[in-house]
Design goal:
single chain; 293 residues; alpha+beta; 7-stranded mixed sheet; elongated
Length: 293
């Protein structure tokens, strides 16, 4: 009996033991690759996303401070964007402003059109995992329905000027962008003697002008931001003739091409009862901010 036990013990093959050990190792590798490694990638993504967000919020605060300080105020910054990101001057978006009017319920007529650049400062980072869902969009400043242009600060946005958001299309890239919405106001003057209503539409804009390289791939790029000047431009006066007993409605329509699609807004719609000639003028107040990459 003892001999049989000894024979059985000697029958245990080193090959079987080695294969069992390799199986345990491979199982550990599979668990690491299948769960732990993706979680580490998501952690790295979140660290870089947080760094980019903090950098852009800091830039936004600097721009507002520079405007308050006055022309030629300047600041130098070194950003922390992470290893997968690069900074770029996005000059592709633009807006078309249309002056429209309608007498009673008749066909809408066009008075004039104006083109306005809508430049943005952007950072693009390649995600390692699906840390942010595809086809998603979120605001870093404010929340809810944030129009690109709006009248007299009336919007559900919690911040008046800043458009600071992150978006991901159907790819592996997350885009963080900073721009500023147009703040619209108007002044109406009624001249009874001349039977005229004069309507001046004012639009306040922050106009980015980029210098240096169009993009920077460094993880810690150094940039300069300067508040250069305030430029005021005015269009010609547009005249809408008087129609007795009718009501003239003036409308401001803005089409903005952004991220491959067009957004349409009507931030101003103003009725003028039948009184006299309606004269309309557009005034654009541009706060020029120079960003050197």
């Amino acid at each position: 009996m003892i001999k049989k036990l000894i024979k059985y013990k000697r029958a245990v093959s080193p090959v079987v033991s080695t294969m069992f050990l390799m199986g345990v190792i491979l199982m550990g590798i599979a668990i690491t690759l299948g769960f732990i490694y993706p979680e580490l990638n998501k952690l790295s993504d979140n660290v870089e996303i947080g760094s980019i967000s903090s950098s852009f919020i800091s830039i936004d605060n600097d721009i507002k401070s520079l405007i308050q300080s006055g022309e030629n105020a300047k600041v130098f910054k070194t950003l922390d964007l992470g290893t997968n990101a690069f900074l770029t001057a996005d000059t592709s978006p633009f807006s078309t402003i249309l002056f429209l009017y309608q007498v009673d319920n008749n066909q809408i007529q066009t008075l004039g059109t104006f083109d306005e650049d809508f430049d943005r400062l952007s950072a693009r980072t390649e995600l390692r995992e699906d840390t942010v869902p595809q086809n998603s969009h979120s605001y870093l400043v404010g929340s809810g329905n944030q129009d690109i242009f709006y009248l007299n600060h009336t919007s559900s946005a919690t911040m008046p000027w800043t458009i600071l958001n992150q978006s991901r299309a159907l790819n592996d890239f997350l885009n963080t962008s900073l721009s500023y919405r147009g703040i619209i106001s108007f002044d109406k003057n009624v001249d009874i003697a001349a039977s005229e209503v004069n309507l001046t539409i004012s639009m306040q804009l922050i106009d980015f002008q980029f210098k240096g390289s169009p993009s920077v791939s460094s993880a810690t790029p150094s940039i300069s931001i300067e508040y250069d000047s305030v430029n005021v431009t005015r269009s010609e006066w547009y005249n809408i003739g008087y129609t007795a007993g009718s009501t003239t409605t003036f409308m401001m329509k803005i089409n903005t091409f952004l991220d491959g699609k067009t957004t349409t807004e009507i931030p101003l719609k103003h009725e003028v009862p039948g009184f006299g000639t309606l004269n309309v003028q557009l005034e654009i107040i541009s706060h020029v901010v120079i960003i050197t990459l």
